[in-house]
Design a protein that fits this description.
Four copies of one chain form a homotetramer. By secondary structure, chain A is an alpha+beta fold. Chain A has one domain: Roll (Thiol Ester Dehydrase, Chain A), CATH 3.10.129.10. Chain A is about 20% helix and about 40% strand. Chain A contains three helices and eight strands. Chain A has a six-stranded antiparallel sheet with strand order 1-2-6-7-8-5, covered by helices on one side. In chain A, strands 3-4 form a two-stranded antiparallel ribbon. The longest helix of chain A is centred in the middle third of the chain and has 16 residues. In chain A, about 55% of the residues are buried. At the A-B interface, helix 2, strand 3, helix 3 and strand 5 of A face helix 2, strand 3, helix 3 and strand 5 of B. Strand 5 of chain A pairs antiparallel with strand 5 of chain B.
């Protein structure tokens, strides 16, 4: 497979994105997701369900998960949901509401679903819950599509 | 120093927050910040300047920093800027616009400043730049103050 | 009915909010909603469905509804959904994604639903659609509860 | 001057935008802004300062300005700041934090400034204050540029 750079002329360059890259391939090269132990539970067109176990280094103070990592899980879910089509998508922006604390040892599940898409942009809603537990955060993000070179 | 729990009756419990905790003490107990190599460059009432070096595991694809970690740096800067007073603050929500890609090896600097505060809530604006380089992200967050037990 | 001021010690004073005010009473005193012809289609605890017809003065350029008025409808729906309980709620913040244009003569429907609530804060999601048509905007807002004096 | 439609292939159609339209011309055709009595105080490339007097119908409850109209003023300021160049810009999304109440009779001033721009997108920060008074709201929005037909 030929790898060429997918340059985002305006936003984040997302690195080398080969044509016809599957989300599984993206995940295999995604060191950040691996470092966090993020696992893919389910993929479908415009959808992704991921999970992440909160370990000790993810906490601030005693045993509460840093909000940035809840965001990271949600952002990763959006990325995987938005990169299943022909275009490589990068995040333009995102917002998050924090609703409940998450403690060390708990497992988070993020469900991302495309709520709108056009030729160039996409909008995704992501809900993060504690597995078999309460809603932890609501996230909404906008993506911008880049052509993939082949 | 007596440590007692600061319970957020409604949002994230931020763990054991002792009375009169300094931000330096918070940082010493903040495993997430340590894991990311986040350093405190400057602290002032309502302000915090932090830095973070982007290392290999922070990247997705080849060498581009995951947006979640830019958010994490900004969120940490807000936390340190908002926890310098009498109340322990937790984040209610935040939004971020991503403007430029960040590559492995680059150093990020986040400057958080309180833009508004009341008896119970605070609002913080955080700008993230590449050191001696362009603006990477704009972040704005709202915090809610919890009483610190002593 | 005795009317006393519900003072928001930190955010927006929402004027004179009598104890046990119904949303219908709020609407009767809500000159802004009346000016826009905003109608209540349905009310339930934590929910409100409102409609608004786009008339000529709501447009910018030729016949496209100003984004601020789509926000206004969504914000009003959140207000009505959040003011059905014991506390008077004011908006702390909100975000909106614009997805499709709205033209003069079209009718907008906003559906607000509480997605989280605590002793002091609430979070609401609002979807705005063209009646029998596509999604126009997604909105999420956070509210802060004030005691109602009686 | 030939008027042709500027079609937003993905978001809001902003109506008939002639080539080389000045912001003053946009304002002249902007019925929403006129209805609100929004005045242009200052224009510069990437900047706009607007004012709006809060009149009775803009209030909810007794004499407090509806948050939607504070958003409308900020959104209009972004539109005028972003439409001074070659491209017609439409809003992709926006967020707002409400900080202080505004009463009937007060004059609001919104200052919009471009914080980032690329070939296709722009990011604007808008601060709304009461004239000679406190900060009322902070707003940040993202725009998408459309080609103007001539």
């Amino acid at each position: 497979m030929k790898i060429t750079p997918a340059v985002n002329d305006q936003n984040r360059i997302i690195g080398q994105v080969p044509a016809n890259t599957t989300v599984e391939e993206l995940h295999a090269r995604d060191k950040a997701a691996q470092h966090f132990g993020i696992r893919i539970l389910k993929l479908a067109p415009g959808e992704a369900t991921l999970s992440m176990q909160v370990v000790e280094w993810m906490t601030q103070g005693h045993n509460i998960c840093h909000g940035g990592f809840i965001f990271t899980l949600a952002d990763t879910a959006m990325a995987y949901a938005s990169n299943s089509g022909d275009l490589a998508h990068v995040a333009l922006n995102a917002n998050i509401d924090f609703l409940n604390p998450v403690r060390e040892g708990q497992e988070l599940v993020a469900l991302a679903a495309e709520a709108n898409s056009t030729k160039k942009t996409g909008m995704y809603k992501v809900s993060v819950t504690i597995k078999n537990g309460p809603l932890v955060a609501e996230f909404r993000g906008r993506t911008y599509g880049l052509s993939r070179k082949s």
